[in-house]
């Protein structure tokens, strides 16, 4: 009975021997192409394909180099949020543009996960982190910061790490000043949660924690403008809701139930603003004739659905924010504590106008 002879699997060493090069050259062709000439790399890859060799095994490569070839992006929301929110989609596109250039992969690590043990496993599969505006005291964030891996924080206050920041405080000061100049004094604010949880309504004179750096900075900008305009902070309501259109609808409904005389809503995202506008129109309140609504982001929603009202908003460059974060993380020699600022701008649209009680004055 004849015995089948199994073909011997090609290895990095056998490829090197067949081509008369060193095993290091073959390894570099896959793991560090810049260290071999283009011609040699093409010759190695072509021969490898001919003997069904697909490159070093990822696990073996990781064990040998101590690197996974991936960066972890941590964010507060469920995984699906990253694929439905215009800001996060654009932000991740900026990160991925650099990853494509560098040959790296992305591991998305949502902090809102029903299986925390899975989340903790994901954090071990990366070479570094980009922290996208997370809650400061979340245990996964604290654990990530303590691992000692290269880390870039985005819209997050951590002076010992490289960071990418937006001028949130300045922009919310400008938005609030814009509404005050239009005669608005009965104003409320709609924000995404400043900590885990949502739905609370408080006055602006309350002491807000720094658990969420973005919320803290935007609240501070509003306060500064109201103070400059001599508008009492205790008369300004702040409602927390999940950062989506439904959250904006619910916030507008609750705020108008408490204060039917409101003339303006300052929303901390375009999604919240679009939801708030939807509720106002359904309730018979014309925008901006009866109530003004402002947003923040300046991005078209996924699918580019036509918008009936062009928002007054703050336009921030989410793509550049993501790209800059990835460039800092993968910078030769490390990012250290470098700081990058992405400047946003106020865009006056059709959703804000003179307060109705001031029109005849």
From TrEMBL:
Looking up PANTHER family in the UniProt record yields: LACI-RELATED TRANSCRIPTIONAL REPRESSOR (PTHR30146), TRANSCRIPTIONAL REGULATORY PROTEIN (PTHR30146:SF138)
Tell me where in this chain the HTH lacI-type domain is found: 10-65
Q: Which Pfam families match?
A: LacI (PF00356), Peripla_BP_3 (PF13377)
Membrane-traversing stretches: none
Q: Which GO terms describe its molecular function?
A: DNA-binding transcription factor activity; transcription cis-regulatory region binding
Question: Does the keyword field hold GTP-binding?
Answer: no
UniProt keyword annotations, A-Z: DNA-binding, Transcription, Transcription regulation
CDD domains per the UniProt record, alphabetical:
PBP1_LacI-like
What's the name of the protein?
Answer: LacI family transcriptional regulator
Determine if Transcription regulation is one of this entry's keywords: yes
């Amino acid at each position: 009975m004849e015995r089948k002879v199994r073909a011997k699997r090609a290895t990095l060493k056998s490829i090197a021997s067949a081509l008369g090069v060193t095993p290091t050259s073959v390894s570099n062709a896959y793991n560090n192409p810049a260290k071999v000439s283009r011609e040699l790399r093409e010759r190695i890859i072509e021969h490898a394909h001919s003997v069904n060799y697909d490159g070093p095994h990822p696990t073996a490569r990781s064990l040998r180099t101590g690197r996974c070839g991936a960066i972890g992006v941590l964010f507060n929301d469920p995984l699906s949020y990253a694929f439905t929110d215009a800001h996060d989609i654009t932000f991740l596109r900026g990160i991925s543009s650099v990853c494509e250039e560098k040959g790296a992969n992305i591991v998305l690590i949502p902090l809102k996960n029903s299986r925390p043990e899975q989340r903790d496993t994901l954090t071990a599969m990366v070479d570094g982190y980009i922290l996208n505006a997370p809650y400061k005291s979340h245990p996964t964030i604290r654990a990530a910061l303590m691992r000692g891996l290269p880390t870039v924080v985005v819209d997050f206050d951590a002076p010992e790490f490289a960071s990418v920041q937006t001028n949130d405080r300045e922009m919310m000061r400008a938005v609030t000043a814009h509404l005050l100049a239009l005669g608005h004094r009965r104003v409320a604010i709609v924000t995404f949660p400043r900590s885990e949880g949502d739905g609370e309504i408080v006055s602006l004179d309350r002491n807000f924690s720094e658990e969420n750096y973005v919320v803290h900075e935007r609240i501070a900008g509003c306060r500064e403008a109201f103070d400059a305009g001599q508008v009492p902070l205790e008369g300004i309501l702040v409602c927390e809701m999940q950062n989506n259109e439904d959250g904006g609808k619910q916030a507008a409904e609750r705020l108008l139930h408490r204060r039917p005389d409101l003339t303006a809503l300052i929303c901390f995202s375009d999604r919240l603003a679009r939801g708030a506008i939807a509720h106002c129109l359904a309730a018979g309140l014309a925008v901006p004739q009866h109530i003004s609504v402002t947003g923040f982001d300046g991005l078209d929603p996924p699918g580019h659905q036509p918008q009936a009202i062009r928002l007054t908003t703050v336009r921030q460059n989410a793509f550049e924010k993501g790209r800059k974060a990835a460039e800092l993380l993968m910078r030769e020699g490390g990012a250290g504590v470098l700081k990058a600022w992405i400047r946003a701008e106020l865009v006056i649209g059709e959703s804000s106008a003179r307060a109705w009680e001031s029109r005849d004055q």
